[in-house]
Write a structure and sequence with these properties.
This protein is an alpha/beta fold. Helices cover about 40% and strands about 15% of the residues. About 0% of the residues have low confidence.
């Protein structure tokens, strides 16, 4: 794979700063909480923190897998903190959030993959802020349908699971994950509770072809996933996969149009788009 190391001008971003950024960072530190914004080195951290939004990362800050695109640290892992759901809900309340995104590291070491911890966190937020809309971005739970059912019974308003890349690149990009298993998870949501909308995300710039992207979008539609994010893969460090291509903003705009034409009801597509980027706006657009 031929790599590109020099970022084009459209991929510049200001450094995080400002009172709201510091306020959220301070609340997270005091609550002994993690955000995927920080752990995954998200380029939107300044914008999101400044707008009083964050994606909470539960079940610790270390992952049992070692995906070659992800900046989150891996192994060893600590047991889940039983008080974490309460601390997350307290922080959500202090921030005055009405739309909350909860994600986690992958915990293949736990019998339920952490599904029970997700459910406790959802319920605790709903108990404190009944009007809150909760989006969960979950791992694949190794295909465990009971674990998925556990999360859905807690009644999140959105179930997000990222497909990440096209099937041909899975072995390289997502060792330990299976394309078919991720699709099956998204489809299974509809058999368990058809009222919960599903969402997925795709990274571009890893060497995928146009035909492969289109087929992946169709695969998502075939399992009734109607909310989509598409963003540029950025290499977190020299130990991670190199960028094969920087996709121009106009091409992301075209993919957004294509996705709408194919049947998606909510699409966010752009170089800096990530799974939870403008999640509230995307949810409202897809579920008017």
């Amino acid at each position: 794979m031929r790599s590109q190391t020099k970022k084009p001008p459209w991929l510049t971003r200001r450094l995080p700063s400002g009172p709201e950024y510091e306020k959220i960072r301070g609340l997270m530190n005091r609550g002994r909480l993690h955000t995927v914004c920080q752990e995954a080195k998200c380029p939107n951290i300044w914008e999101c923190f400044s707008n009083r939004t964050a994606t909470f990362l539960i079940l610790g800050d270390r992952c049992t897998r070692n995906c070659r695109f992800c900046a989150v640290a891996h192994s060893p892992v600590e047991p889940p903190d039983p008080a974490e759901p309460v601390r997350v809900a307290e922080t959500v309340e202090k921030l005055g959030l009405v739309y909350v995104v909860i994600t986690s590291v992958t915990r293949d070491d736990l019998p339920d993959g952490g599904a029970g911890h997700f459910a406790k966190t959802i319920r605790e937020i709903h108990r404190r802020i009944p009007e809150a809309v909760i989006e969960v971005l979950i791992p694949d739970f190794k295909g465990d349908a009971i674990a998925l059912r556990t999360v859905l019974k807690a009644r999140p308003q959105v179930l997000n699971h990222n497909i990440e890349t096209v099937p041909r690149l899975y072995a390289t990009v997502r060792p330990g994950a299976l394309y078919a298993r991720s699709l099956e998870l998204l489809g299974r949501v509809k058999t368990i509770d058809a009222s919960i909308p599903t969402k997925s995300g795709l990274m571009l710039g890893l060497g995928e072809t146009t035909a492969e992207i289109r087929q992946t979008l169709q695969d998502l539609l075939d399992v009734e996933c109607r909310m989509l994010t598409m963003g540029q893969y950025l290499q977190p460090s020299t130990d991670h996969l190199p960028v094969a291509r920087f996709v121009p903003p106009a091409e992301f705009d075209q993919w957004q149009q294509t996705a709408f034409q194919m049947g998606f009801s909510g699409v966010a597509s752009g170089p800096f788009v990530r799974s939870s980027y403008h999640a509230k706006e995307l949810f409202n657009a897809a579920n008017p």
